[in-house]
User: Fold these one by one.
Assistant:
Number 1:
Amino acid sequence: MSIRPPSSRVTTAASTRVAAPATAITAPPAGLRKGDSGPKVKQLQDGLVKLGYLTKAQAATGPGTFGSLTEGAVKKFQTAHKLPATGFYGEQTAAALKKALGKPPVQNPPTQPGKFTKPPVISAPSPNADSRNGTDIDAIVLHHTGTNNGKGDLAWMRNPDSKVSANYMLDTDGKIYQLVGDEKRSWHAGKSELHGVPTDVNARSIGIEIVNDGSGKTPFTDAQYKALTQLVGYLKQEHKVPAANILGHKDVAVPKGRKDDPAANFDWNRLRKGIGG
């Protein structure tokens, strides 16, 4: 298949002075729609930026103005939370936003730098896998699913008629589904090569599908980046995968240009910084 937190700057006049905690981002009251403006709209935009449904650059084009970009971000949030995608910020959407913003941040264990434990996964076995035939894992390949429908993507990769799968799938809410055990060869890369050398990439890699339509306009969510950092950090450590072998499907697909995932707006720098290389 193609299938931030704000930095806090602390200024101290003396070593005994303690910096005040950053102001928490909260959900504004319901009742906002396209055409509205003011501080409540800015509060809504801040919340959508924090959760990854709106970029800072997009919000900066109309801070405090409920325009098309904000409406689109609200619709994406509604879709991700199984609400009618109306673009109107009503009672149900406000309640869902309040809940999402109130969740404690995902902690990437453990406390020692460069050490990761396997994050919680939901077992969702797929029959679309076979043996690695003794091939060692030395690569991790990232994909976007090509839709924003995690439930549908999961069902497709578990359907024997699809002939596709991945070892893991990350939904928009950060949940990680394991479809194929690490020890098995999932069917995610197709005809491929590694650094220009033809090879069976499926046999030597872990495939990770990230739920995203791949348009380059739909943001990958903050929850996805946090979960992906923990998962890739663990897999890199567990299988001793070189940093140069953590790639996108577009980097291994043959011929070049056959695939474009993960999409152009995927933040590789954030991932590489999080896993330490």
Note: The longest strand covers residues 139-144.
Number 2:
Amino acid sequence: MSTNDIDHLKHEAAARAVEYVQNGMKVGLGSGSTSEAFINLLGARVRGGLDIIGVPTSERTAQLARSLGIALGNLNDLAPLDLDVDGADESDHNLDLIKGGGGALLREKIVAASAKKMIVMIHGPKLVEKMGAFPLPIEVLEFGHAETARRISAVIKSLGYGDVPLVLRKKGDAVYKTDSNNVIYDAAFGPVISETAKLANALSCVPGVVEHGLYIGIATTLIVARPEGIEVIERS
């Protein structure tokens, strides 16, 4: 599938997601390329008279939304949100997700957890039987991060996954920093993650882990764009 084909599918998923936004809503605005397609379409509706207020999940998202005339507010003042709309790096058929490839997993999860509904936009290959082909991002405090990574590895091994490589994310030659000034380790499981809730809970208990990219039981609607059309999967 070419880059143009993927971009087209992202746009199709975003166009379906925009249909869920109604006048007067408080909307979480996700991060990443599919979310940016959604925000551009949402901006067009705002210019056409739609009255909503958004809560961005990253500084980049906030900048884009402002440039399009979308009003933004503070999560503390607006929660609970009516809707959160975001992309994902992987989803299984239970609507559990891996997110964080773009580095915004902490703020994305806070916003998603603060919304009554979470709509997730993906293109076909991201819907998988077992997650893990996309490396799982784990956001940790910079203080003692190498020691935190050792504890993460030990916990993962104790759950039967063996020696899963952990890679400290970099941007060029520098260590990548999130908007919250933390660092990220990417865990290369391969497509073998099972008992996702058990893994999520175990990672959350590691001292130094701020958040991880497993979203369990949060997404309510999955929009899957394929060349043959759109599939919408609702959480049962």
Note: The domain at 136-212 is CATH 3.30.70.260 (Alpha-Beta Plaits).
